[in-house]
Amino acid sequence: MPLPDAGLPKPAVWRRLFWLVAALAAAAGLLWFAGAVATERADQALRLRTSRTADLFDGLLAREVARHRVVPSVLAMDPTVMRVLAERRSDAALDQRLQLLNRQMNEAAVYAISADGVARAASNAATPASFVGHDYRFRRYFLDAMAHGESTEFALGSTTRRPGLYLANRVGPPDAPLGVVVVKVELQSLEAEWAQSGVRVAVSDPTGRVLLTSVAGWRFQTLAQAGLAPPPPDLRLVVR
C-alpha cells in the first residue's frame, strides 16, 4: 500500500521555496556588492582627501620656510657678521641689530655661530636665555649648513626646550667657512591653522618625537606614546 504523502510539500511548493531561496541569495549578493562598492568609493574619497590634505600642509610648511628663508641668506653676506665670526668674538652692536631684525620679522631668535660651533651674537643676547657662548656643534642644522651651504630642520630648542623651525646658512666660502647664521621660527600660528582645519597633523623628528601638531596632547610624545605607530590613515604625518 503506498504511503500517504499528505504531510510532504507538493512540487509547486518546492519550486516556490527554491525561487524564494534564490531570490534571498541574490538580494544578499547585491547588498554585499553594493556595500563593497560603497566602501571602495569611501576609501577612494579618503585617499583623495588625504592626498589633497597632504598637499595643503606641505604647502603651508613650504610657505613658512620661504617666508623666513631670506633672513639667514642675507645675513650670511653681511660684512659685520662675517667679521664677528672670523674673529670669533662677541659684538654688542651686532646683537642689537639682530634684536631689531628679530622684532621686525617676528622670528623666535636670530643668531650667528662661528666655525667652532659657539654662538657669537644673538637677538636674545640681553636676556637670561641668551644663546651667546653656547656650543651648537652637535646640532644638525649647524653641521648641514657648514657642509652644504644651508639647512632646514624641525627640532626642539636645546636652550629654550621649545620646538621650532631652524633655517641656517653658511657664512663664507665652502673651503673656508666662517660659521653659520640661524633663524629660529616658532610655528604656533601654523599649528593653530591646522587645528582650525579639523584635520589631524603631526610633524615628528627622525626619532619619532612629535614636535608640531594640530592635537595639543601629542606634542613632545613619541608616535608610539600618542598611539600613532603605525600612523592611522586619517593622520598627515611629516617626518623631519
Description:
It is a single chain. The strands form two sheets. Strands 2-1-5-4-3 form a five-stranded antiparallel sheet, with helices on both faces. It has a three-stranded mixed sheet with strand order 7-6-8. A hairpin with a 5-residue loop joins strand 6 (200-204) and strand 7. The protein has helices spanning 11-75, 79-87, 92-105, 140-148, 188-197, and strands spanning 109-114, 119-122, 150-156, 163-171, 179-185, 200-204, 210-213, 235-239. It is elongated, with a radius of gyration of 31 Å. It has 240 residues and is an alpha+beta fold. Helices cover 45% and strands 20% of the residues.
Walk me through the topology.
Layout lengths: L10 H65 L3 H9 L4 H14 L3 E6 L4 E4 L17 H9 L1 E7 L6 E9 L7 E7 L2 H10 L2 E5 L5 E4 L21 E5 L1
Parallel strand pairs: 6-8
Antiparallel strand pairs: 1-2, 1-5, 3-4, 4-5, 6-7
Using brief descriptors, characterize the structure shown.
single chain; 20% strand; 8 strands; five-stranded antiparallel β-sheet
Short description:
The protein has 240 residues and is α+β, with helices and mostly antiparallel strands. The chain has 5 helices and 8 strands, in the order H-H-H-E-E-H-E-E-E-H-E-E-E.
- For the report, how would you describe the main beta sheet? 5 strands, antiparallel
Shape: elongated
Gyration radius (Cα, Å) is 31 Å
Mean pLDDT: 77
Total number of strands: 8
Indicate the low-confidence ranges by residue numbers: 30-54
Count of discrete alpha- or pi-helical segments spanning 4 or more residues: 5
In percent terms, what proportion of residues is strand?
15-25%
**Which H/E pattern describes the elements?**
HHHEEHEEEHEEE
Report the structural category.
alpha+beta
Through-space gap between termini = 91 Å
Helix percent band? 40-55%
Q: What topology, given as strand order, has the largest sheet?
A: 2-1-5-4-3
